[in-house]
Design brief:
InterPro entries: F-box-like_dom_sf
Shape: elongated
Protein name: F-box domain-containing protein
Distance between the termini: 53 Å
Radius of gyration: 20 Å
Largest sheet: 4 strands, antiparallel
Helix content: 25-40%
Number of helices: 4
Organism: Eragrostis curvula (weeping love grass)
Number of strands: 7
Length: about 140
């Protein structure tokens, strides 16, 4: 029975990670299957590697942009991160699953994190996490 469940879970679409997250909450045995290294390896082999569509780059003037790779036929030439007027300086920190984590500074030099979807230009602003000062 467990092999049958594995085969079903293996066919979950990779572009919908919420399905896998919700499935881990069903029962402990499904959680163990989905988190097992062998299953994750089979899942990647079954669905193949994701395509590299381009690079997120930072400019010296504290702006970030997207440069399509040569093997990707893009429907647009390039993306440019367009933060709100109050957030003039931005820096791309990381990119995962088509979304970019951007660190922005406003006029008061306060830091803000933004999750940016370059396709839809949707931006979700997050507060910068506070950290305790520790000098040890």
């Amino acid at each position: 029975m467990e092999e049958l469940v594995e085969e079903i879970l293996l066919r979950f679409p990779p572009d919908e990670p919420a399905c896998r997250i919700h499935t881990t909450l069903v029962c402990k045995s499904w959680y163990c299957i989905l988190c097992e290294a062998g299953f994750l390896r089979r899942y990647r082999d079954f669905h193949g590697k994701p395509y590299l569509v381009g690079y997120i780059h930072n400019n010296s003037d504290f702006s970030s942009g997207f440069l399509p790779s040569t093997g990707f036929v893009s429907t647009c030439t390039a993306f440019t991160f367009s933060p709100s007027a109050a957030l003039k300086r931005s820096w791309a920190l990381n990119c995962r699953h088509g979304q970019v984590l951007v660190q922005s500074y406003d006029d008061d030099n306060s830091v803000q994190l933004i999750v940016w979807d370059p396709i839809t230009d949707k931006q979700q602003h997050l507060p910068f996490p506070s950290y305790p000062y520790d000098y040890n």
